[in-house]
Amino acid sequence: MTLMQMDADNTLAYISLGSNLGDRAGNLLLAVRGLIEADLVVRRLSTIYETDPLDMDTDLKFLNMVAEVQVGGTSPTQLMARLLRIEYSLGRGEKHPGPKEPRTIDLDIIFFGSQVVNSDFVTIPHPRMHLRKFVLRPLAELVPNFVHPVLKTEIVELLAASEDTSAAHRWSPNVHAKGGTAAGAEG
């Protein structure tokens, strides 16, 4: 194995996961399982956040998180294709045709190492990630000092400067199952 192959094998990608239909937590779990079954090494997962829908035609709250995955020799295009297969296997497609509709699962590549990709199939870094608290909060848990390869700004700085006023609270299944709100939940 050459040094270049080793670097490709060690590339870390960050994937945003979100669900606001059905068993939201179960959908996230199934998506993580799908990542593993797609031959990705899931290294770390952020906390799950309950978030308001942003720019969508629904009031159904999301559960969101970020996964850090080691992609092996997978290209950004191949990773996007794998994510789409996971989404469709979990019921996204004909039932939820529009981008502003509720969904069982939504998977987006936020970063693929420090690569910048702009094709018809995938754009990396995700073009709106820096505007979305539901991505920035869990991402800041995993890689607070990662520098956005286009904006040249650390994740914690992007979060601090975010103008997104939507709610993004740590989710607790035990508290929410009782219909309460988490005491001291972060906002």
Describe how the helices and strands are arranged.
Elements (H helix, E strand, L loop, with lengths): L2 H7 L2 E8 L4 H14 L3 E5 L3 E3 L10 E9 L5 H14 L16 E7 L4 E2 L4 E2 L8 H10 L12 H7 L6 E3 L2 H5 L10
Antiparallel strand pairs: 1-4, 1-5, 2-4, 3-4, 3-8, 6-7
Helix pairs in contact: 4-5
Give structural notes.
- The protein is α+β, with helices and mostly antiparallel strands.
- It has a single domain, classed as Alpha-Beta Plaits.
- Helix content is 30%, strand content 21%.
- It has 6 helices and 8 strands.
- The protein has helices at residues 3-9, 24-37, 76-89, 133-142, 155-161, 173-177; strands at residues 12-19, 41-45, 49-51, 62-70, 106-112, 117-118, 123-124, 168-170.
- Strands 1, 2, 3, 4, 5 and 8 form a 6-stranded antiparallel β-sheet that branches.
- A hairpin with a 4-residue loop joins strand 6 and strand 7.
- Helix 4 (133-142) packs antiparallel against helix 5 (155-161).
Terminal CA distance reads 46 Å
Radius of gyration: 16 Å
Q: Could you give the order of the helices and strands?
A: HEHEEEHEEEHHEH
Report the uncertain regions.
Answer: 1-6, 178-187
Q: Within the CATH hierarchy, at the fold level, what is the topology?
A: Alpha-Beta Plaits
Q: Which architecture would the CATH scheme give at its second level? A: 2-Layer Sandwich
Q: What would the principal axes of the Cα set say about the shape?
A: globular
Q: So how many helices?
A: 6
Instruction: Give the class-level CATH name.
Output: Alpha Beta
Class computed from helices, strands and strand pairing: alpha+beta
